[in-house]
Amino acid sequence: MNHVREYRKQKKISQMELAKRIGVARQTINLIENDKYNPSLELCLSLAHVLGTDLNSLFWDGDEQQ
Amino acid sequence: MNHVREYRKQKKISQMELAKRIGVARQTINLIENDKYNPSLELCLSLAHVLGTDLNSLFWDGDEQQ
DNA sequence: AATAAATGTCATATATATTTGACACAATGA
DNA sequence: TCATTGTGTCAAATATATATGACATTTATT
């Protein structure tokens, strides 16, 4: 239940393009977008930077959002 | 360069106590505090919840902090 | 000073994130 | 309709996060 896909589409780039910019495999992006696994912090930080946002916006849901 | 240790000390709990509450090994906490590796997102989320804070406060440093 | 608690660290084992290559199918555009 | 691009997914291999047990050292606490 993260917001990676939304932010990626907002940037109008493909999974492959996003993967290339971050330096991971396309499958990694795909699996993260579909909540199939559990990325490392370093990868989350790269995603946030490349997508022009921050950790909370991508991965922190619910009530206690600041 | 995360802020786990600061928030843990603020809560006045040991690495062992924090590890127990989160359900990981004490070494895992120790290595994260000392930037020896790269926790999973799920673990980061647990840390944020148990420490009463959020992802950005623990792991998002620098300029673009919101 | 002595005892206990907290921390740093090592070595080995296991679970799982991530990679690579490939294929099928959907969507898009020529 | 054909070609292209994007996406979902599978299987096998590799890298690395995490666990377990142990020990040394530092930091309270008495």
Automatic annotation (TrEMBL), chains A, B:
Q: Name one GO molecular function term.
A: DNA binding
* PROSITE patterns named among the record's database cross-references: HTH_CROC1
Q: Is DNA-binding one of the keywords UniProt gives this record?
A: yes
Sequence ranges assigned to domain HTH cro/C1-type in this UniProt record: 4-58
On the tree of life, the source organism's domain of life is Bacteria
Query: Is the DNA-binding keyword given for this protein?
Result: yes
Which keywords are on file for this protein? DNA-binding
User: Which Pfam families does this one have?
Assistant: HTH_3
Q: Which InterPro entries match?
A: Cro/C1-type_HTH, Lambda_DNA-bd_dom_sf
Put simply, this protein is called Transcription regulator
